[in-house]
Amino acid sequence: MTIHGLEAFHGEVDAEVFAVKFSAFMKGLAESDEEANGSRAHKFVLTDLRKNTATAELAERKIRATEAPPNSGIAFYAQGIEEIRANSPRARQLPKALVESVVALGNGVSKKFEFGELKMPDGSVLLLDAFLEERAKLVLSDIKNKSTDLGLFQGIAFGSFDGVLKAVDFQHETKRGTIRLSAGGLPVVCNITDVNIDEIRSALDQRARFYGRASYGGASPLPKMLDVRRIEVIEVGLGLSRWRGAFDIQIDEDGWGDS
Question: pLDDT tens, 119-129?
């Protein structure tokens, strides 16, 4: 991330302005990582803070080793900014906190700093300018209005969710996992501390129903956390093949079928 100072101040950047922008950038990355993976899968390590410039470099590091590599939070954030700039319908599906971070990144552009740049690992550069700030504010307004219109639930509810258990973490006292829902493949973070270890193992990477207490935050139709009490693995049937031969009629010598 680089912040360019105003020409009136010979390109120098106020340290406080840089600190605010860097904080907003980190919040956006954290939100993106959680959204892309269902829970935090990366930490973002500061690898360079260049002297006499307003540039900071970060590296994405996995928090823990997993069988499948986690999705990149940086890539998710970059795609989110592109959707916001394009003012697309998909931008309205981004997490509100992510869009708020983009608004914060652009706040004060052309007044407190000239513009900013985010250089991605693939070499592409995302421009933080007045146009992006305007689009981000518009998208954020639509997200807020939509949330109000939908009257999204905030509180606790008991129920069941159909999906596949992924990315189980047994390293802490509180055992956590991620459920990929059968409908849409969206991730739901779950607490599986109260579930028997054998029950968890039998359900891993299998379609199952997860029963428990869901905590809703009001910002999404999905729960922020599901405290699982019971898991029921869904047995995969044979489809129509299981009926093969069930309706065959035995013909006797007189030409009549058995009744």
Answer: 988 888 898 98
What number does CATH give the domain 154-234? 2.40.50.140
* pTM of this structure: 0.57
Binned at pLDDT 50, 70 and 90, residue 259 comes out as: very low
Token pair for 56 = 């900071």
Each domain of the chain, given as residue ranges in start order, spans 2-150, 154-234
